[in-house]
Design goal:
The protein has about 180 residues and is α/β, with parallel strands linked by helices. The chain has one domain: Flavodoxin domain (Rossmann fold). It is built from five helices and eight strands. Strands 1, 2, 5, 6, 7 and 8 form a six-stranded mixed beta sheet that branches. A hairpin with a 2-residue loop joins strand 5 and strand 6. Helix 1 packs parallel to helix 5. The longest helix is centred in the last third of the chain and has 22 residues. The radius of gyration is 15 Å and the shape is globular. The chain starts with a strand and ends in an 18-residue tail after the last helix. The C terminus is likely disordered.
Amino acid sequence: MPRAIVVHYSRTGHTKALALEISRLLTEAGLQVDESAVRPARQLGALRAVQCVLAHKDEPVCHDPIDLSGANVLLIGTPVWGNGIAPYMRRFLMEAEHLCGMPVVLFATCSRENKRAADELRRLVREHGGRPYAYEAWHIHKDGPDGLRAAAERSVKAALALLPNGNSAGKPNGIRVHS
């Protein structure tokens, strides 16, 4: 059975909601899914968090080691703050074990522009040996609640395409996603 790992950090619950929807859809597609939340060692106030983002600083996290052995795809999610990734996800990626060519689908929640965050995520994944393939974002205010499902479906579609034979669990069509 193909295995996917979904790792995320969420401050307000938006990124967690997206991660849980992605996990649900991957499970429906026949994958074994391990979902894990990155927990901050200390929670920053909003102003300090944005200052860390703008200065490209990371913040300590508490997390159990994530076993990538046997995983076919890794999905990593973060909120976008000030056009950058959350400092906790930056630290998580900086401490990540060597990703050994692991295919990675990136996802984010944001309220506006997120190109710099996407570029930073891709760079960090590459620096640690991963292969970033897709980046999907849920623009919370612009896309509204329906955007959550659409971003999850796009992320899952990208993840399924990375599996051997481009499908899930040997099923001919994988899951059906709405365009």
